Each structure stands twice: as structure tokens, then as C-alpha cells.
Amino acid sequence: MSDARFYVYEHWRPDRGECFYVGKGVGRRARQLYKSARNDYHLAIQAKLCRLGLKVEIKIAVGDLDEATAHSKEIELIAFWRAAGHKLVNLTDGGEGSSNPSEQTRALMRAAKLGKKLTAEHKAKIAEKSREYASDPDYIARLSAAIGAAANTPRAKARASEHFKKLIRTPQHCARISAAMIGKKLSPEHAQKARFASFGRKQRPEEIERRRLANTGKKRSPEFCQQMRDLQNRPDIKSANAERMRKLNADPVFKEASRQLLIARNKARTGEKRLRNKTEKLQGNQ
Questions:
Q1: Nearest-angstrom CA–CA distance, 90 and 126
Q2: Residue 24 belongs to a domain with what CATH number?
Q3: DSSP H helical segments within 8-119, as ranges?
Q4: Are residues 91 and 42 in contact, defined by beta-carbon separation less than 8 angstroms?
Q5: How far does Cα 104 stand from its chain's mean position?
Q6: Structural domain includes residue 24
Q7: Does 260 fall in a domain?
Q8: Cα(259)–Cα(267) distance, rounded to whole angstroms?
């Protein structure tokens, strides 16, 4: 299956109404106009347009291409515009370049930029461009969709799962989390959402056993018990619980589950009572 994510784009001069550059790329390549991404001739035209209060016009000529087709289309468009008399700043006839560099090439590119610091002017330009992108609803929607699609692939989910499985919280880490959470109170809305989110979830046997062992021998202090009683008697908590029960009782699945649970409890109690009576009768006969 071909990788149809490439496109061929054009950069136009609005002062002359002509194309001055043709390129091939993926993602945001067409919008990358900064110094390290363009040659000196391209940057000179950008500077001239800036002095005139204009910007480079970006046009996607052809989209949804595989890499080989994008290379050939780039060559065709460069030849076409040069034949039409447009002065392109492309340094070659197109069709070259690596869209997926090797690890060795990536390492060399990384080493070349290592230790270099951006100037304040460069940082300001990046910030301005980022604000421009952030104010574009279409760009935000495309970016959100792309991130969601990338994160929901089986490979991405497997990598995330493997990453979090390797994370081990040290006692120091747990202590810092505990200290950060002390004194923080959930809002009534947050607490209610948490209750509804956890309702109906079944705990794993290992989790139940871990909690049982953690709580074995522990007794609630009178202050804690009084605090829980006061919490349950708060009007907002009472109304929230009443509303929750009203919604649950209106759910046929919940009503049937409750009925089956009540039947099972009654059967268990009846069996225990019969067993106790039978035991007492046997002991009396002896």
C-alpha cells in the first residue's frame, strides 16, 4: 500500500503575481519559511515582501501523493514555471531530497544543531508564527484530528502501554504526590463526576486483596467517622445522592441487577439461618 501523504506546493509573490518556488513535502513543510528551512534567495524574497507589508502566498498544487509521484510532479512543475518565464529560486530541477532520512543522517542533523542558541529576534518570529497558527480554527482542527489519529493507532497504544508499565513510583515519588494532595478538596461537581465514573466498575481480585491487606488492623478514628457523618448530612451531598439514585432507579438494567442482588442476598441469609437452626437442633439433641 502506497503512502499517499505527500504533496507538491508553490510559493507565490503577491507583488508580481507569480510563482517563485516549487517544493515537495509532508505535514507543515509548505509553511516552514524560517531561515534554516530555506535558501538565501528564498529568504531575500521573503525580506522584500516583508518590507512591502506582504507575505508569501502558499498554494498546494497537488495533494495525496506517494513520494515517487510527488518527486515527478515537482520536476514537472519546476520545468513548467521556468518555461513560462517565472524566475524560480529552486537550486535544482527537483526530484531530490530525503523525506525519511536514516538514523545516521538524523544523528548528523541533530549534532549540527546541538549547542546553537536562537537569537531573541528568531524566538520572536517563532512565537509570532505560533500565535498565528493558534488563531486559525482550521489548523487547530486539523492538528487535533492528526494527533488523535496518531495516538489511537495500535502501535501508539502499545508503545504508551509499555512505557507506563515500566514506570515505577518510588517511595519518595509517592511521598511528594501525597504532600501535594494534602489539603486539596474536590469541588462538588468534580466529586460527583468521580462517583458516577467509578460506579459500576468491578475491581480486580488483586486490587481487592491489596486494599484488604492495606486496611487490615486499621481503625477509623472518631473524628474521621464524625467527619463522614457530617459529609453525608450536607444538603448538597444529600440532593446529589438522591438525584443519582433517581437516575439509577430509572435505568432498567440497574433495576434488574439490584433485584438479582437482593434475591441472592435473601437466599444466602435464608441458607445461613437454616444451617444455624439445624446446628442448634443437633446440639440440643446431643
A1: 24
A2: 3.40.1440
A3: 40-51, 67-83, 103-113
A4: no
A5: 30
A6: yes
A7: no
A8: 12
The count of residues in the chain is: 286
Tell me the C-alpha distance between 143 and 31, whole Å: 14
Phi, psi for residue 207 in degrees, rounded to 5: -70, -40
Picking from 105, 107, 108, 82, the residue whose alpha carbon sits closest to that of residue 93 is 82
pLDDT digits (tens, 9 = 90+) for 36-62: 788 889 999 999 999 999 999 999 999
User: Is 192 inside a domain boundary?
Assistant: no
Q: What angle do CA 129, 132, 135 make, to 5 degrees?
A: 150
Which domain covers residue 42, as residue numbers?
A: 1-96
- Select the highest-mean-pLDDT range: 2-16, 49-63, 92-106, 138-152: 49-63
C-alpha cell read off for 278: 439445624
- Alpha helix segments (H runs only) across 101-234: 103-113, 120-134, 137-151, 154-166, 171-181, 188-198, 205-215, 222-232
Q: Which run of H or of E encompasses 264?
A: helix 252-285
Q: What's the structural domain count of the chain?
A: 1
Encode pLDDT of 203-247 as tens digits.
778 888 888 888 888 888 888 888 888 888 888 888 888 888 888
Write out the three cell numbers for 185: 478538596
What pLDDT was estimated at residue 1?
42
CB 25 within 8 A of CB 7: yes
The CA-CA-CA angle for residues 47, 50, 52, to 5°, reads 115
* Cell numbers linked to 191: 466529586
Output the nine-digit C-alpha cell for 220. Answer: 477509623
Is 169 within a domain? no
Distance CA 247, CA 249 (A): 6
DSSP E strand stretches across the chain = 6-13, 18-25, 57-65
